[in-house]
Design brief:
Order of helices and strands: HEEEEEEHEEEHEEEHEEEHHHEEE
Shape: globular
Structural class: alpha+beta
Number of helices: 7
Number of strands: 18
Strand content: 25-35%
Helix content: 10-25%
Largest sheet: 8 strands, antiparallel
Distance between the termini: 30 Å
Length: 363
C-alpha cells in the first residue's frame, strides 16, 4: 500500500512536473487529464480534482456538470509513452456536492460489489483473471456515410493476403498462419514475437504481474498476453493498463490493435475469458466435492451468472460485434451452460489439479 504522502514526496524528490490522471467511463474507455505538479496536494486523494462531467458520455447534464476525480495512491506509475516524465495515477469519481462516490463510475461499482460481498459474510475477496485477446493489423480503414459503408483490414500475416501488405514497397514473404492454425506456430510464421515481448515487459514495468504471451488461433495477427489474477479492482486496473500498453506499443511499430470480438469473417474471433473465484479469511470457497470439483457456493455462483446473463451481457457486451462472434465451430461460447471442459459453454471450469486454491470458473 502507498500513502498520498509517499506519492507527494516522490513527486517532490524526483522533481516530477506532470501528473496524468486517468479514469474510466461507463462504456469502458480510459479518459485522462494532465496537470502540473502544483495542482496536486493531499486533498486530491480525498476530495479529488475537478472536471466537467457533462462532457463524458452518459454521465451528467450540463446544469450539474461539476465532478471530481479522486486519486488512488496505489496506482502510480511512470507513463512510458509520453515524451516528458509523467506520473500516471488512476482515479475514481466522486460527486463534489454530496461527497458520495459516483454510481456510474465502473471503478466505484466494482468497489461497491466487493463491499456488498463482505457485508453478506459469504466471502471477503473476489479474485478475477481476465484474458483479453486482440488482433494486430497493418491497416484498418472503415466508413459509414449517407451513401456508402465499408471496412478494409490488412495484415502481412493474413492467410487471405496474396499481394503486398501495408505499403507498396513491403513484400509479402508468404509466412502466415492458415485459417485456424495460429496456435502456436514459431517464427517466422509468428511475426509478432518481438512486439508482444515489448508489450509484456512494458506492462511489467508498470506493475502488472505478467505471466506469458503467445499467438492465438486466428490468422491476421491474433494474439494474447497473460497476467496473474488479482483482486477485482486491481485486476480491472491491470486490464486497462494492458489495453493501453498494447495499443501504444503497436502504434510505435506502425501497427494498429483491435479488441473487437469478430473483425474477420470465417475465422476465430477474440474473447475475454474472465476467471473468477471467491475467498474468505485467506481460504478458497469454490473447491468442493460436487461437479468438476466445485463447492455448493461455486455452483450457486454459476447459477447466478446463468440466471442474470441477459442483464449482464447488456452491460458487458453492448455492441453487435460480440454476438457476431457467437458462431458454432470457432470456440465461441454459443451455449448458455456450464461445462468442465467444453469451450463452447459460456461458463467453463478449467482443470486445476488437486490444489483447491486454483479452483475457479471462467465466464
Amino acid at each position: 500500500m502507498t500513502t498520498p504522502q509517499e506519492v507527494l514526496k516522490r513527486i517532490q524528490d524526483e522533481k516530477i512536473q506532470l501528473i496524468d490522471l486517468k479514469f474510466i467511463d461507463t462504456v469502458g474507455t480510459w479518459q485522462h487529464l494532465t496537470v502540473y505538479q502544483n495542482q496536486i496536494d493531499e486533498t486530491a486523494f480525498t476530495d479529488g480534482v475537478p472536471f466537467d462531467g457533462s462532457s463524458i458520455r452518459g454521465w451528467k447534464a450540463i446544469n450539474e456538470s461539476d465532478m471530481t476525480m479522486v486519486l488512488d495512491p496505489n496506482t502510480a506509475w511512470f507513463d512510458p509513452f509520453m515524451k516528458e516524465p509523467t506520473l500516471s495515477i488512476i482515479c475514481s469519481i466522486k460527486e463534489p456536492r454530496t461527497g458520495e462516490w459516483y454510481n456510474r463510475c465502473p471503478r466505484v461499482i466494482a468497489q461497491k460489489a466487493i463491499d456488498y460481498l463482505v457485508s453478506t459474510g459469504l466471502g471477503d475477496t473476489a479474485f478475477f483473471g481476465p484474458e483479453a485477446e486482440f488482433f494486430i493489423f497493418d491497416s484498418a480503414r472503415f466508413a459509414q456515410t449517407a451513401n456508402e459503408g465499408y471496412y478494409f483490414l490488412d495484415s502481412e500475416e493474413g492467410a487471405w493476403n496474396s499481394g503486398k501488405a501495408g505499403t507498396e514497397n513491403k513484400p509479402n514473404l508468404g509466412y502466415k498462419p492458415r485459417f485456424k492454425e495460429g496456435y502456436f506456430p514459431v517464427a517466422p510464421t509468428d511475426s509478432f514475437q518481438d512486439i508482444r515481448t515489448e508489450m509484456l515487459l512494458t506492462m511489467a514495468q508498470l506493475g502488472v504481474p505478467i505471466e506469458k504471451h503467445h499467438h492465438e488461433v486466428a490468422t491476421g495477427g491474433q494474439s494474447e498476453l497473460g497476467f496473474r489474477f488479482g483482486k477485482l479492482v486491481e485486476a480491472a486496473d491491470w486490464l486497462m493498463i494492458y489495453k493501453y500498453v498494447i495499443k501504444n506499443v503497436a502504434k510505435k511499430y506502425g501497427k494498429t490493435v483491435t479488441f473487437m470480438p469478430k473483425p474477420l469473417f470465417g475465422d476465430n474471433g477474440s474473447g475475454m475469458h474472465t476467471h473468477q473465484s471467491i475467498w474468505k479469511d485467506g481460504q478458497p470457497l469454490f473447491a468442493g466435492d460436487k461437479y468438476a470439483g466445485l463447492s455448493d457456493i461455486a455452483l450457486y455462483y454459476i447459477g447466478g451468472l446463468l440466471k442474470h446473463a441477459p442483464a449482464l451481457l447488456a452491460i458487458t457486451n453492448p455492441s453487435t460485434n460480440s454476438y457476431k462472434r457467437l458462431v458454432p465451430g470457432y470456440e465461441a461460447p454459443v451455449n448458455l451452460a456450464y461445462s468442465q471442459g467444453n469451450r463452447c459453454a459460456s461458463i467453463r471450469i478449467p482443470l486445476s489439479g488437486t490444489n483447491p486454491k486454483a479452483k475457479r470458473l471462467e465466464f
